[in-house]
Design goal:
Structural class of chain B: alpha/beta
Number of strands of chain A: 0
Structural class of chain A: mainly alpha
Oligomer: heterodimer
Distance between the termini of chain A: 38 Å
Number of strands of chain B: 9
Helix content of chain A: over 70%
Largest interface: A-B, 35 and 39 residues
Chain lengths: ~325, ~200
C-alpha cells in the first residue's frame, strides 16, 4: 500500500501511475478487496480516536452547537486520508472519489462499533507467573488487537520479501536461512515495535498490585519476557512459512534460523522494555529497543552466518538477565 | 503484634516525606493515620504495603520484614491486603480477572459469598475496571485485598467514592476483620470513618 501511494502519487507516472493502481483494484475484486482491507487495517485505529472522541466528551457539556465538533471530525476523517484519497482521485476521478467515500463510511462504522465486552467466567490461574502472563495476554488482546493484526500482515509481507530475496539470488538452503532471517528481522521491526507498548503499560500499571501481593520482580520479568517471546515467535513462524511458499529450497534452515533469531531478539527487546518501565519517553525507548533487537540479529547473522542465531539467543538471555 | 514500623524515613525527589515514623499495630486493632493533605499518608501506606521502598527504617508484617530478603518479603506480603488511593489496577481487566490474579498471587481462594454480598461484587465480575466508577473500582480492589483474608489490611482513603450503603458495609468489614484477630491501617482525612471503625488515630506530619 505504501509503495502504491508513494510510487503512484509522488513518483507517478514514472514506472507506475495512479491510474494503473486504480484500474488494477477496480478490475480485480481480490486485489480491490485486499487494498481496501489493508487501508482499513491502517486507518481504523486513527478513525476510532476521531469517531469516538472519548477524551473530548466533556465538551458536550459546554453551551455550544454540536455541528462544529461533527464538522471537525469529518474534516479530520477526510484530511488524515489524503494519500489514499489522492491515489484514488488521480487514478479514477469521480469513481475514485465515490470509492473513497464508501470506504470512509465503512471505516467510520467499524470505528464506531464497540465489541461485546469479554466474559471471565470461573477464571482460576495456577500461580503468579500464569496470572501475570494471562493478564499481559489480555492486555495485548484488548489494547493492541489492531497492532497484532498489522504485525501478522507485516509478517506475511516480510516472509514474501525474504522468500523473493532467496529465490531471485538462487541461494542454497543454509544461506537462504541466514538471509531470510535477517530480511524478516528488518521488515518485521515496525510490526514488533507496535505490539510491545501495551504489554509494557500493563507491566507498569500492575506493578503496585504485584508488589503488594508478593509477586517478585523476577516473576514479573519472566512474565513480560514470556509474552514478548510469544509475540516474536508466532510472527516469525508466520513469516518463515510465507518465505517457504516462495523459496521452498530454504526448507528447515529458514524456519530454524528465523525462529531462533526472533527468540533471541525478543529477549533483547524485553531488556529495553524493562529498562524503560519508569521512563517518561517509554514509547520511544520501546521502539528503539525493537530496532536495536533487529539490528543485533542482522549484525550477528551477517558476521557469523548461521551460528549468529545462537549468538543472538545468548546475547538476549544475557541482556534480560542483567537488565 | 501484626505490624511494626520502626523509625521509618521516606525521601522522594530530595524531600523527606516521612521522617522517623514509628508505629505498632496489635492483633484486633485498627489504626487510623490522619493528617493534612500532602503530609505523607499515602507515601507511608505505600511503604508499609511494599510498593515504595523506604530510605531508612524497618517495617515488619506478621514478623516478616517487608523490605528484607526474598522469603521475608514474600511472607510479609502474603499477610497483607492493600488498596491504594487511586484504586487503579490495569483498566482492561474485568473485576473477576483482578480477583483471580490476586488469588493466584496469594494462593488463596476466590472471594467468599459473604464478601461478594457485602461489597456487591457480583455486578463487577464481568465489568472492566476502566468502565467502573471510582466507588466500583474501590469495591473491586477491596474484594481483591480481602482475599485470604490477610492479617493486615492497608487502606488509603477507603471510603472515597463509596455510596452510603457500601460505606456502611466497609465499616462492618473493617470491624469484622479486626474482631477476627487481624488488623487494619487506614489512611484517611475522614475522622467520622475512623470513629465508626473504632480506630486509634495516629497523626502524621
Amino acid at each position: 500500500m505504501g509503495a502504491g501511494i508513494v510510487g503512484g502519487v509522488i513518483f507517478g507516472p514514472n514506472g507506475m501511475s495512479p491510474r494503473d493502481f486504480a484500474h488494477l483494484a477496480l478490475g480485480s475484486p481480490v486485489i480491490g478487496i485486499g487494498m481496501v482491507a489493508t487501508w482499513m487495517l491502517l486507518f481504523v485505529p486513527v478513525a476510532r480516536v476521531i469517531v469516538r472522541a472519548d477524551a473530548a466528551r466533556y465538551l458536550r457539556s459546554l453551551p455550544s452547537p454540536r455541528w462544529p465538533t461533527v464538522a471537525l471530525g469529518v474534516a479530520a476523517l477526510v484530511g488524515f486520508q489524503w494519500p489514499w484519497i489522492a491515489l484514488w482521485f488521480l487514478g479514477a476521478g469521480a469513481i475514485g472519489v465515490a470509492v473513497v467515500a464508501l470506504v470512509t463510511v465503512l471505516i467510520a462504522g467499524v470505528a464506531w462499533w464497540r465489541f461485546a465486552p469479554p466474559k471471565t467466567g470461573a477464571l482460576r490461574w495456577r500461580g503468579p507467573v500464569a496470572a501475570l502472563f494471562g493478564t499481559y495476554a489480555r492486555g495485548l488482546r484488548r489494547r493492541a488487537a489492531d497492532a497484532l493484526m498489522r504485525c501478522a500482515g507485516l509478517a506475511v509481507l516480510a516472509g514474501l520479501a525474504a522468500g523473493l530475496f532467496c529465490r531471485n539470488n538462487q541461494l542454497g538452503s543454509r544461506e537462504a536461512g541466514v538471509i531470510a532471517a535477517a530480511v524478516i528481522a528488518v521488515v518485521l521491526t515496525p510490526g514488533w515495535a507496535g505490539t510491545l507498548l501495551p504489554p509494557l503499560e500493563t507491566h507498569r500499571d500492575s506493578a503496585w498490585l504485584a508488589a503488594s501481593t508478593g509477586i517478585s520482580e523476577q516473576t514479573r520479568r519472566v512474565a513480560l519476557a514470556s509474552i514478548v517471546v510469544a509475540i516474536y515467535l508466532v510472527t516469525a513462524l508466520v513469516a518463515a512459512l510465507a518465505a517457504l511458499a516462495i523459496a521452498p529450497d530454504g526448507g528447515a534452515w529458514i524456519i530454524a534460523l528465523t525462529v531462533a533469531s526472533a527468540f533471541g531478539a525478543a529477549f533483547v527487546a524485553t531488556r529495553a522494555m524493562i529498562r524503560s518501565e519508569h521512563s517518561d519517553a517509554m514509547a520511544m525507548r520501546v521502539v528503539i529497543g525493537a530496532i536495536a533487537a533487529s539490528a543485533v540479529v542482522v549484525i550477528a547473522l551477517g558476521a557469523l552466518g548461521a551460528v549468529g542465531a545462537v549468538a543472538v539467543i545468548a546475547l538476549g538471555v544475557l541482556a534480560v538477565g542483567t537488565a | 503484634m501484626i505490624c511494626d514500623v520502626e523509625a521509618l524515613v521516606v525521601r522522594r525527589g530530595g524531600r523527606t516525606i516521612v521522617d522517623r515514623f514509628s508505629l505498632a499495630v496489635d492483633a484486633g486493632e485498627t489504626v487510623g493515620v490522619v493528617g493534612k493533605n500532602g503530609c505523607g499518608k499515602s507515601t507511608l501506606v505505600m511503604a508499609i504495603a511494599g510498593v515504595l521502598a523506604p530510605t531508612e527504617g524497618r517495617i515488619a508484617i506478621a514478623g516478616a520484614n517487608v523490605w528484607g530478603g526474598a522469603r521475608e518479603r514474600m511472607r510479609a506480603r502474603n499477610a497483607l491486603g492493600y488498596v491504594p488511593e487511586a484504586a487503579d489496577p490495569p483498566g482492561f481487566l474485568l473485576g473477576g480477572e483482578l480477583w483471580a490474579m490476586c488469588a493466584a498471587a496469594r494462593g488463596s481462594e476466590a472471594p467468599s459469598p459473604s464478601l461478594i454480598e457485602a461489597l456487591g461484587l457480583d455486578e463487577l465480575r464481568e465489568l472492566a475496571l476502566e468502565r467502573m466508577s471510582l466507588g466500583q473500582r474501590r469495591r473491586a480492589c477491596l474484594g481483591a485485598a480481602l482475599l485470604g483474608p490477610p492479617k493486615l489490611l492497608v487502606l488509603d482513603e477507603p471510603d472515597n467514592g463509596l455510596d452510603s450503603k457500601r460505606a456502611d458495609a466497609l465499616v462492618l468489614l473493617i470491624r469484622a476483620h479486626a474482631a477476627a484477630g487481624n488488623a487494619a491501617i487506614v489512611a484517611t482525612h475522614d475522622r467520622d470513618l475512623l470513629e465508626r471503625v473504632g480506630a486509634r488515630s495516629v497523626a502524621l506530619g
